[in-house]
Design goal:
20% strand, binds magnesium ion, globular, binds adenosine-5'-diphosphate, alpha+beta
Amino acid sequence: MKTGELIGSGKYRNCFSIEGSHLCAKKKRPFHFKLKNLRPGFFRDLNKEEFHVYSNLPPKLKEFFPPNYQIVGELLISERPRDYSGEYSKIIQEHGPVENASFWEDIDTIFHLLIEHKIWLFDVFNKGTNIIVQKVSENVFRPVIIDCKKFGLKSYPLQIHLWLESERRKKLIRRLSYFHQRFKPDSLMVKPKK
Ligand SMILES: Nc1ncnc2c1ncn2[C@@H]1O[C@H](COP(=O)(O)OP(=O)(O)O)[C@@H](O)[C@H]1O
Ligand SMILES: [Mg+2]
């Protein structure tokens, strides 16, 4: 398994293509002694932790992840989603607003599954780097979650309010609402009934 070009980077990990395949590999970013690297989580094995989170997800949620999620050594491997055109799909931050009703129905489903199973993945609806817009056909777009690491009380023990389930729920609702503001066109917003 040989890693190739860099296809994306987050705050914690870089993601590389794997030559001769449609897979990619996440790898911890190299440590530089900078203040920004001292954020919680930098010294944890986030690949292993994320794989553990993924493994315990309900099957219905796993459907929104790329296939072939696996750990190989220190790498976290997964497939790179592709559009019906054959091109690799984009993260929503690069794609911009998504004018597609079925995409937003799926986002709704994801949100309700997270709430129902009390899975507090606040980072799924972040600035748009953890969800890919996969164009399955001209009319059907699908969200694919590519990052499910969990930062909870272990990283932020001082956020005492998050000990309360009602507060966690509120935080997830807030995140989803920013996500809507950023990426959901007005035409698809449900208008409040008068
Ligand atoms: N399965 C994938 N397909 C395509 N790109 C991916 C995939 N997984 C990760 N990436 C890219 O790598 C970036 C960093 O991965 P991510 O898991 O979000 O790292 P971090 O923990 O640093 O946020 C993503 O924002 C995305 O651009
Ligand atoms: Mg990320």
